[in-house]
Amino acid sequence: MGARKVSFPVVVSGPSGAGKTSLCQGVVADCPDVVYSISATTRPPRKEEVDGQDYHFVDTDRFKSMIQAEELLEWARVHDHLYGTPVFSVRPFLARGKAVIMDLDVQGGQSMKKVFPDGVFVFVVPPSFGVLEKRLRERKTEGEEVLKTRLRNAEEEMRYRKHYDYFIINDELDKALGELKSIIEAEKCRMSRLFTGENS
Question: Residue 138: what pLDDT?
């Protein structure tokens, strides 16, 4: 029996500063059959970010037109900005037999669960809130008020972990990356993905 390609979305959520983006990028760099879904946002780009590579940066009017045209699989307001997952960032790659990994906040994760109930949902956390605050401060991308808002939101976001399939503590990036890749590899072997539609 020959191997067959198995496509499914992998949603990675967790508090801001948990290391979600680094983990997603690490998976894509190491796994040629996994692609990264680039989200759209009205948030201004940070100094090192590239449009079309880190995010699709759009203004509010363009984002609203994407909502009206049903060009987004999900969208939410997070930290006073709009974020969404474009259809073109996910469905074409699934159709080609790829796994699509996406970095979403907990609102987006719950919305995506309705779109892809058979997806893989992974919750990532730092080892402590102290480490989380340290990481956010070291990024030096937000002012003090924004940083405090992200820390307050992190406590609320942690309550959503029970709605996810897997839980990773990102204490050491290499270890957490290995765990995430192992989850994806295991999901490729799930019987319900390999033999859908077969009679018992």
Answer: 75
Cα angle 187, 192, 85 (rounded to 5 degrees) comes to: 60
CA–CA separation, 8 vs 120, rounded Å?
7
Amino acid at 27: V
The torsion region of residue 110 among left (phi > 0), alpha (psi -120 to 50) and beta comes to: alpha
37-41-47 Cα angle (round to 5): 95
Domain boundaries, the chain: 9-189
Partner residues linked to 12 by β-bridges: 103, 122
pLDDT, tens digit, for every residue of 127-136? 887 777 777 7
Could you say which DSSP state residue 51 is in?
B
**123 three-class SS:** strand
- Is this model's pTM higher than 0.70 or not? yes
Q: Is the CB of residue 12 less than 8 Å from the CB of residue 124?
A: yes
- At the fourth CATH level, which superfamily is domain 9-189? P-loop containing nucleotide triphosphate hydrolases (3.40.50.300)
Q: Residue 197 has what pLDDT?
A: 58
Kindly tell me the number of DSSP H helices and DSSP E strands found in the chain: 8, 9
In angstroms, the Cα distances linking 130 to 1, 36, 159 are: 51, 29, 18
Question: What is the distance between the alpha carbons of residues 191 and 177, in angstroms, rounded to a whole number?
Answer: 24
All residues at 6 or more sequence positions from 61 whose CB lies less than 8 Å from its CB, including other chains: none
- Maximum Cα–Cα distance across the chain: 59
Residues of the chain with pLDDT under 70: 1-5, 140-141, 196-200
